[in-house]
Each structure stands twice: as structure tokens, then as C-alpha cells.
UniProtKB/TrEMBL annotation:
<dbReference type="InterPro" id="IPR059049">
    <property type="entry name" value="TSEN34_N"/>
</dbReference>
<dbReference type="Pfam" id="PF02622">
    <property type="entry name" value="DUF179"/>
</dbReference>
<protein>
    <submittedName>
        <fullName>Transcriptional regulator</fullName>
    </submittedName>
</protein>
<dbReference type="Pfam" id="PF26577">
    <property type="entry name" value="TSEN34_N"/>
</dbReference>
<feature type="domain" description="TSEN34 N-terminal">
    <location>
        <begin position="5"/>
        <end position="42"/>
    </location>
</feature>
<dbReference type="InterPro" id="IPR003774">
    <property type="entry name" value="AlgH-like"/>
</dbReference>
């Protein structure tokens, strides 16, 4: 029923105006609709998360059973293990008409050609959007870097905050975007942290010092926080134009989708959100999955949930390195086609990742991999790489130095040191992709490895 007059009682809230089809911000907690001077239904309570209020209205109008029927069940099982508090919250996502702070950008199939291959199936959280431009964080680009010092750690100082590295030593760092990569952003859902800025109800950025103190004293866990290097930045009006031209879908979502760790997800985050949105978005996600590997099945359906690595000293150093690579390379399925990260790691993932067991042969300094995945999918990720490639079959072994041997292996594709490749910056990765194409054709395996080592060192 059209709202002719709104009676303001107290507090703050939002209400939908059907006449102009947009949300009105009200300085009220209770609002009453008045039509012709006669009060209608009891005023709804709008205090709290107005985004959840809007989502409930969307769910009520969908008529298909709501969010629960679209939930990625195995993702929820994983979240229950990693963060039971978030898992108890309702998971939802729906389309919006335009970009909004706290909302998402979901890359369309046109995004790689319009804004760059790095945006393939990107899910971007908008943290600022206004006349001065827009800033976002890519949620689904985990790296192998951690906050700790030394090997595998962040190779730059974080505002001189040593306590941050101490408290979050094992926290994974995500690539938040492709601008200002010297900036590290902390994302979390902790309301009481001093210095934290709430961008929308329940989602905060900042408050590093308070977060460090809470983790060091045991008040909070490292997994309650996410760290991002870099941001996505757009000039005034640029993001609206890209959305209008079809580079991105815009959406709102529950905070659980934003705050959870995006590691080893059975259903990739982009597909999870698109399916929650339903309708044409869900069909687009299914079509992308079919094009990817010819099936609607989730890539990790039936795979074991991630487990902790065994303590150091229980296996040969090189075996441990390969096992660590097996865990890290799960992220390859969530990187963009054409990037050297995916081109190299995707193939390793098919051998190392999603396995039921890894048997370390300490005496021969090699690792035997058993139970190879039932489907070696997405081999097209290697297209255009310019290197010889034969699909992996049956059993393979990873010997000392990282070379793959076994049935019909691709030759000379892998570096001698996994960690060296993992720690490359975005710019170095782009250079490396070109380097492979231009310099590696016609070289022997040994020459390729040596060339890679020289590239990394210089």
C-alpha cells in the first residue's frame, strides 16, 4: 500500500516506498504508515541490520522456499567447523539495482575482457562508494602468504606493528585488489574493537592494535579476521558505468559470506553467491560450471574436509614442502583463467590437491600421491600458456625439486621451489607469464628451471 505519510517515533530505520521504488532512510526505530489519516498495520521494528530487513522482504516475495533451498551445504558444514558463530547466522544474497557500500560486485563472463583477466569470477566487497570514487576488496583471491616473518611471510613492514605479525602469524593474506598493494586492510565482524570502522551493520574494517591485543590474550581467534593486500579502485562514476555496461552484477549479502575464510571452499564463493541469488544468476553460475568441466557438480563434492598439517619434524623436509603445496594449491580453482597463478598451480592442484592421502617416502626424498581425483577438469586453464601439456592420468609422483614424473607428465612446467613462486607479487606474476611464453619454448627441462630461478632472483 502506498505510504502517504510516515509517523516518526524514535531512533533510526529504513522503509520501502513503493511509489518511488527505493529505500527511505528514517530517523526512527518505529514507523507507522498513515493513509488518509488512518493508521494501518502495527509499525514494524526497524532497529538493527536494515540489510537483513530488506533481505527478509526479498525472501518473502521470492516464493521458492527462501535462502535455505539455495544454500551450498558443504560450505555451511565447513563454516560450522571454522566459525560456529557465523554458521548460526542466516546466509542470504540477492540482487540490487546499483552498487552500494557493503554490497558485492560479482564479475560477469564479460568482466575479463572489459576490466582484465584478474577479475574472472571475482567477488568484490564495496567498502566505499560515492562522488569521490569507489573502493573494494576482492574476497576470493587467497595467496600463499601469511602475516608471519620469514619464509612464506609478508615481505614488507605493516605500519611498524610487530604485534600484528606476532598475533596473526598464521593468518592467510588475500589479494584485495590490484591497486595500492602496499596497503594491508583488516576485515572482521567484531563490534567492540577500538579503532574499527563499521561500513554496514556487522562488518568492520580496521582496529589492528585492538585486534592484536584480543588475539594475544586469547579473547578472539586469528580466524575471526581477514587480511587483504591492495584494493580495487575506480574513479568517480567509473564503477556505475562498468555495472551498466555489464562487467559486474551488484548484490547484497549476509555478513557470513563476507567474513568467512575463503579457503578450500567446496563450492567457490562466486558460484555460492550467484546460486543464492537464484533465477538468472544461478543459471549463469551453472552454465559457467558446465563450461568449466562439463558438470554441475561442485569440484570438491565428496572430498575430505581440510585437516591441519602434521608437526614439523615428522617427515622429510621436501615431503613437508610438497604436502604444504597440496594444501595451498586448493586456491588455484578460485583464481582467474590466464593468470600464471592458475596456469601453473591449476595443474599441480590436479595432482596434489583433493587427495585422501599423501604417503611420504622419506628415504627416497619423494612423495607418492594416491587416490588421484576422479575428474581432471578445467584443463583449459592451461590454454595459451605456450608450454607442452599432456593430461595427467593415473598415479604421479613429485620427486625432490618439484619435478612431476609418472604417466605422460607435462615436462618442465614447475619451478624447483614452490614457495618462491608463491611469494611473487602481482606485477612479477604478469612478467612471469610473458616470460614463460617468450623464453621457454624449445628449452630443455633443466634450462627452463634455471631460467625460472634467474627470474625469481632478479
Amino acid at each position: 500500500m502506498p505510504i502517504a505519510e510516515i509517523q516518526v517515533l524514535e531512533g533510526r530505520g529504513y522503509v520501502w516506498d513503493a511509489d518511488v521504488a527505493h529505500w527511505l532512510r528514517l530517523e526512527c526505530g518505529l514507523v507507522g504508515a498513515m493513509v488518509g489519516g488512518v493508521a494501518e498495520l502495527p509499525a514494524p521494528q526497524l532497529m538493527g541490520d536494515w540489510r537483513s530487513f530488506r533481505a527478509n522482504l526479498v525472501a518473502q516475495s521470492s516464493g521458492d522456499g527462501g535462502w535455505a533451498v539455495r544454500q551450498a551445504e558443504q560450505n555451511l558444514v565447513l563454516l560450522e567447523i571454522q566459525n560456529p558463530t557465523l554458521a548460526r547466522e542466516e546466509t542470504w544474497a540477492h540482487a540490487t539495482g546499483a552498487p552500494e557500500i557493503g554490497g558485492l560486485l560479482l564479475a560477469t563472463s564479460r568482466a575479463p575482457e572489459m576490466v582484465g583477466a584478474e577479475y574472472w569470477q571475482a567477488v568484490v566487497l564495496i567498502v566505499n562508494h560515492g562522488p569521490q570514487g569507489s573502493i573494494g576488496l576482492v574476497l576470493n583471491r587467497p595467496t600463499a602468504l601469511k602475516m608471519k616473518r620469514g619464509r612464506g611471510g609478508l615481505p614488507l613492514a605493516v605500519d611498524g606493528m610487530e604485534s600484528l605479525r606476532e598475533a596473526f602469524a598464521e593468518s592467510r593474506i588475500y589479494c584485495g585488489g590490484f591497486n595500492a598493494q602496499q596497503i594491508v586492510t583488516l576485515l572482521h565482524g567484531q563490534r567492540k574493537l577500538e579503532g574499527a570502522l563499521e561500513i554496514v551493520p556487522g562488518i568492520f574494517i580496521g582496529g589492528q592494535e585492538a585486534a592484536s591485543a584480543e588475539v594475544l590474550t586469547g579473547g578472539l581467534k586469528q580466524t575471526d579476521f581477514r587480511f587483504f593486500m591492495g584494493v580495487c579502485a575506480w574513479q568517480p562514476g567509473e564503477l556505475n558505468r562498468l555495472v551498466a555496461e555489464g562487467a559486474f552484477h551488484t548484490a547484497a549479502c549476509s555478513r557470513s559470506l563476507v567474513l568467512k575464510q575463503c579457503l578450500q571452499l567446496p563450492t567457490p564463493l562466486w558460484r555460492e553467491v550467484m546460486c543464492l541469488m537464484g533465477g538468472q544468476f544461478a543459471e549463469e553460475a551453472r552454465a559457467a560450471q558446465r563450461a568449466d568441466d562439463g558438470s554441475d557438480d561442485d569440484d570438491m563434492r565428496g572430498a575430505p574436509l581440510p585437516v591441519e598439517m602434521p608437526p614439523a619434524g615428522q617427515a622429510d623436509a621436501r615431503a613437508m614442502q610438497a604436502a604444504e603445496a597440496a594444501r595451498l594449491l586448493e586456491v588455484a580453482s578460485q583464481t582467474q583463467p590466464g593468470s600464471v597463478t592458475q596456469q601453473i598451480l591449476q595443474l599441480l592442484q590436479r595432482v596434489l590437491g583433493r587427495l585422501d592421502s599423501i604417503e611420504a617416502r622419506v628415504e627416497s626424498t619423494e612423495v607418492r600421491l594416491t587416490n588421484v581425483p576422479r575428474r581432471a577438469s578445467n584443463n583449459r586453464a592451461l590454454a595459451g600458456f605456450g608450454l607442452p601439456f599432456t593430461p595427467l592420468v593415473k598415479e604421479h609422483r613429485v620427486a625432490a625439486g618439484g619435478a612431476v614424473v609418472g604417466s605422460e607428465p607435462p615436462a618442465g612446467l614447475f619451478p624447483t621451489d614452490f614457495s618462491a613462486m608463491m611469494q611473487l607479487t602481482g606485477a612479477q606474476l604478469n612478467r612471469l607469464a610473458a616470460f614463460y611464453e617468450e623464453e621457454f619454448s624449445g628449452r630443455t627441462v633443466a634450462e627452463r628451471r634455471r631460467a625460472f630461478e634467474l627470474f625469481v632472483c632478479h
